[in-house]
Amino acid sequence: SKLGHALESLKKSMKWDEDTFGLEYDLDVYNVVAVNDFNMGAMENKGLNVFNTAYCLADPKSATDSDYERIESVIGHEYFHNWTGNRVTCRDW
Question: Are 88 and 71 in contact (CB under 8 A)?
């Protein structure tokens, strides 16, 4: 599927967060939305990340290594906002 690599990238990001910082995802649901005409690469919100399809969909028949690398980078970046952007407080510093 075109979303397969993005889902695996998200799983890897979540596992890294858990293994490295001991932080499990703190909501019951994590939503990912792909939009064709999204004017940015992606946008994080608590529990919802919105992506331009170029940054989360890859056709295994035609995607390049660079496509897969870009997807993994953007998926991880947006997911980690849940840690750095929303779960770190003054108490943590």
Answer: no
